[in-house]
Amino acid sequence: MPIPRALRDAAIAAAIAFGLFAVMVGLRTEVSPTGALVLRQRWAEVAMLCGIVFAGRLALTLWLGRRALRPTTAPGPWAVRLQQAGRFFAPALLAAALVLPIVSGGDRYLLDLGILVLTYVMLGWGLNIVVGLAGLLDLGYVAFYGIGAYSYALLSTHFGLSFWIGLPLAGIMAAFWGVLLGFPVLRLRGDYLAIVTLAFGEIIRVVLNNWVSLTGGPNGVSGIPRPSFFGLPFSMSGEPDTFAGFFGLEPSPSHRVIFLYYLILGLALLTNWVTIRLRRQPLGRAWEALREDEIACRALGINVTVTKLSAFALGAMFGGFAGAFFATRQAFVSPESFTFIESAIILAIVVLGGLGSQVGVAVAALVMIGGFELFRDLGEYRMLVFGGVMVVIMILRPRGLVGTRTPSVALGEKRAIGGDLVGEGRG
């Protein structure tokens, strides 16, 4: 692209950025010492941000203009490097997750952050079944997360069921509602499917918020029992029938946190193992066929109804497991924890990581959830910087962090499919 055209394009981008930042950053209302509301102007920050947008857009336009199209089926150089690094990155990531409580020395902040990241990893892997493998856009996945949390909360508080009994029951309940959602959307695809699933998530939230006699309404459910280690509670008393007393340890609050960390790590690894195993089975190949072309899938004689319902049910089941863990970890659940923004975050993790990629989803969850904590010191600019980083990642890797896909079953030599060959990036 000629330089004058690139400058004009960058100037237009800077003008659009000024229209956005002038209101969001340039003008800020604050409370003065006298209690009056004053308007603070920050035009220097607006000019700096517009300059960054201008320089970034100019550099991107010139870089894209110098690139030439390569009519080849071979993956790009970055894809090859990522494939080579991926062979060692996944085991290294697993090893780091296993030794984190030991390396951190029981640091409560790091353990809580690790638990949060692993929870979103599990949710991302569950939604990856529906969106990444089956190609069904689900914007209401947080509904199954909430169903699992409330199922365990009500079963434990009203019937006294332990966590190990309530966990599978919460997953079964979420899978049941996943099947109920699947039936009305069997004939829907694309945007229409997204709208219906979004409505389903909002319906569940409204029901949880208004069915006061069952769910407690806005007050939620409190006093949810904590999980035990094979019947040994985590108590500070140090008695023989407690975890610390049985193993002869000094009672410490970190024991329960470390146990919760390894518990969610085990649930996440179970989700990953089941997904990988099913992907190689006829059901998993049917999901991938449905994602690529539903009409061709029907022509091959695949039962599309069973394929869609199984994807919704399994994805919802793992969301229910994560919800049950969330309830026992917090010992309190309320409708405010299951809003649409949670579904948007989980979907962003799946898309950012790469549709259908297990390692990519884990890395995206670590980047989004862990990276959000790294930007906490930036205060009010945290969301702006975090959003800008995500935009840069999606520009450089439009198919996700892992944009290549290796076929689950190949008649001859397996060869990764580059994202450049796919119009919609579904591989």
Structural class comes to mainly alpha
How much helicity do the residues have?
55-70%
Strand portion: under 5%
Query: Which stretches are poorly predicted, pLDDT < 50 over at least 5 residues?
Result: 68-73, 422-427
Task: Compute the average pLDDT.
Answer: 83
Q: How are the strands of the largest sheet arranged? A: 1-2
Distance between the termini: 30 Å
Main sheet attributes: strand count, strand direction, barrel closure: 2 strands, antiparallel
* Overall form: globular
The overall strand count is: 4
Number of helices: 16
Supply Rg. 24 Å
N to C succession of SSEs: HEEHHHHHHHEHHHHHEHHH
Protein model, in words:
There is one protein chain. The chain is 66% helix and 3% strand. It has helices at 3-24, 43-66, 77-103, 108-133, 142-159, 163-182, 191-210, 212-215, 243-247, 254-279, 282-292, 294-299, 304-330, 340-353, 358-374, 382-396; strands spanning 27-31, 37-41, 221-222, 332-333. The strands form 2 sheets. A two-stranded antiparallel sheet has the order 1-2. A two-stranded antiparallel sheet has the order 3-4. A hairpin with a 5-residue loop joins strand 1 and strand 2. The longest helix is centred in the first third of the chain and has 27 residues, at 77-103. It starts with a helix and ends in a 31-residue tail after the last helix.
